[in-house]
Write a structure and sequence with these properties.
alpha/beta, 2 domains, 8-stranded parallel beta sheet, ODC_Mu_crystall, Ornithine cyclodeaminase, NAD(P)-bd_dom_sf, 11 helices, 7-stranded mixed beta sheet, ODC_N, single chain
């Protein structure tokens, strides 16, 4: 059996090693680190290749590729979204990602991204809320208590200092699960039996439901002045959570308009409906929250640059650790022109 050369090896972070890494670093520190990397990349937004994700839709879900590059590194994520999976004992969302060196085209990292996507989505929500939420916000309503909910709550705690989370889901078991997982987090956790009860007294409203349909999780009359809404459940055509009337009364902030107009809450609105790109708020080119009575809305669908940031963060964080192993992934013949010969010589070394 031939021994692969160093050039053939790519660092691979498995699910087990990702969990080990998260527990070693700590979820709050992971969220703070990811937020810092995402902010850094949003500030240099104009350097990146940008395209709406390549999506393959079916009646039961969607499979997507999310690529981007800053000219030095290239990254992509494979991700699915299948709401029906939960009833079959499967995850709604699974993902993996790759980071490569643009100069050689060689991969430099392969990693699971099911857990990492949950972390980066929460970090992006918290980054947006830091820019847009009312000053001194202490309470968040978490509508939809599935796989993303705990990460969202802990990100708002780590980045904004949220003290209280009010939980609601149409499935009481999901709410009980979320509350149990957040026990010991330092958050004051309040379980609610209606979305109205969850929203009462909250300055930040986060919606994260999974049904692939035009839904109204929040109706227009439920949302008053002076709040910030993180709408993160709508992420494909035909899938929304908010009444159009809420959008009409809000200042809406998005990642990449050509993608959000197809997949986000604003797919309900006219094509010229005014939005602000979030990166422009970070750079100071556009204003975020401007008044106490303003309703701000982050219409988040997830964008490839956020995954690129997460891949960079993992690449840097695993250096000098044992939270990965080298995967024999790239062919490395002695003569780059003799791939066929490499295969033939391998037959000789494995023959009996």
């Amino acid at each position: 059996m031939s021994i692969p050369s160093d050039k053939a090896l790519v660092p691979f972070v498995s699910v087990d090693n990702m969990m080990r890494l998260v527990n070693h670093v700590g979820i709050p520190e992971m969220l703070r680190g990811l937020t810092a990397y995402i902010e850094e990349d949003f500030r240099r937004w104009e350097l990146f290749d940008k395209t709406p994700r390549v999506a393959s839709h079916s009646e039961v879900g969607v499979i997507e590729l999310m690529p981007t590059s800053d000219g030095e590194a290239y990254g992509f994520k494979y991700v699915n979204g299948h709401p029906k999976n939960t009833s079959e004992g499967l995850q709604t969302v699974t993902a993996f990602g790759l980071l490569a060196d643009v100069y050689t085209g060689y991969p430099v990292l392969l990693t699971e991204m099911t857990i990492l996507t949950a972390l980066r989505t929460a970090a992006t929500s918290a980054m947006a809320a830091k820019l847009l939420a009312p000053k001194g916000a202490t309470t968040m309503a978490m509508i939809g208590n599935g796989a993303q909910s705990e990460f969202q709550c802990m990100a708002m705690q780590a980045i904004l200092g949220i003290e209280t989370v009010k939980l609601y889901d149409i499935d009481p078991k999901a709410t009980s699960k979320c509350a149990a997982n957040l026990a010991g987090s330092g958050l004051n956790v309040v379980t609610c039996t209606s979305p109205e009860a969850a929203i009462e007294g909250a300055q930040i409203l986060t919606t994260c439901t999974a049904d692939k349909q035009y839904a109204t999780v929040l109706s227009d009359n439920m949302v008053g002045e002076g709040v910030h809404i993180n709408a993160i459940g709508g992420d494909c055509p035909g899938k929304t959570e908010l009444a159009a009337g809420i959008l009409a009364r809000s200042d809406v902030f998005v990642e990449f308009p050509p993608q959000t107009r197809i997949e986000g809450e604003i797919q309900q609105m006219e094509e010229d409906f005014a939005v602000t790109e979030l990166w422009q708020v970070l750079t100071g080119d556009k204003q975020g929250r401007s008044s106490e009575k303003q309703i701000t809305l982050f219409d988040s669908v997830g964008f490839a640059i956020e995954d690129f940031s997460a891949l960079r963060f993992i690449r840097d964080t695993i250096k000098g650790t044992d939270f990965y192993f080298d995967l024999d992934m790239l062919a490395d013949p002695d003569d780059p022109r003799d791939l066929f010969g490499m295969v033939g010589r391998a037959k000789e070394t494995t023959s009996i």
